[in-house]
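YM 10:42: Bifunctional DNA primase/polymerase sequence, as discussed on the call
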Amino acid sequence: MTPGLGIFREHATAYADAGLPAFPVNTRAKRPAVKGWRQATTVRTRAWSTIEKLGAADGLGIVMGKPSRITEIDIDGVGEAWLALAVARFGETPITIRTASGKAKLWFRHDGERRHIRPFSGQPIDILGDGFTIAPPSWREDLGAAYAFLTGGICDVDRLPMIRRGALDAAFSQLPEAVTLGGRNTSLWRQCMVQARFCDDVEALLDVAATWASAFPEPLPTAEIERCARSAWSYQIAGRNFVGLAKPQLTEGDRIMDALIDRPEAFTLYQMLVRWHSGRQSFAIAPRAMSEAGSPPWSRHRIESARDVLLERGFLEELAEPSRIRRKAGLYRLAGRLPNSGNNQDTPSPPFAGGVGELIQ
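YM 10:58: structure's back
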């Protein structure tokens, strides 16, 4: 398969064979390439794939809800923490998808769910029981990457489970039905600021704003909703959105970066030691020999300084001291348990505690 050329033509039949009506999509614009996509059928899927212009599309769209029998949990935040949170909340599923931008999706059996954009306050998660999604192996030419199944595939659609019972209850309890008449603008603007970090463009943020505002007891004018969203987006693209800076901290890489962010050479040396010696009981660190070999390309003193930071902060354990008189390198091992982060760089704990099965409501 040549990325970006004929992806719809090449894969439409497989989707039709699985009972999934697909239609061609412009992945960069995230828009259907045909009119009448909501009325897609497997017959139309096969017909569209034979039309030269449509068959050459770089993406496949799937109608969510009744036509496909699928409800998608769209995780619009990058990182394992958000994926773990979604699985913990909604349940396990055989089909998980990685998007071209590195985000994730979960597919479940449709059970009457509707389309809800950002129903969980402060969480970049959409529930797609209507509308459409972009399916693997759609290609994003601008990103040079494809959508891909992380687990499962279209052959697993018939065994999809339903979303865990009660998983959506917290979403609807957080919608702003109780916002007072005078507080609608402030509430909407803050919500837009929080969610702007998880939106690819202002159009996506406008969709979020419209969903949030739809729950107000007294509706806001459309022009006011758009004004709030565009104002928040202007802060986001200017790098001045300090309302939505928090991101989940769960991975080991986040903790290492936070603890060593003020000593970048120690951080680099640690990454090199992990790559070279992960799994070994012990290893030598010989700063002079390492410097002469250009691995890393630093002076002996810089390597020694970085090593000492790792020892001081608990990333390394010294088994035998180096001896300049005897010209012996020191013997070390990687710490079995990483220290807690000493510098929290706007990376708070993820929105659940204990294990992934415990959620903070």
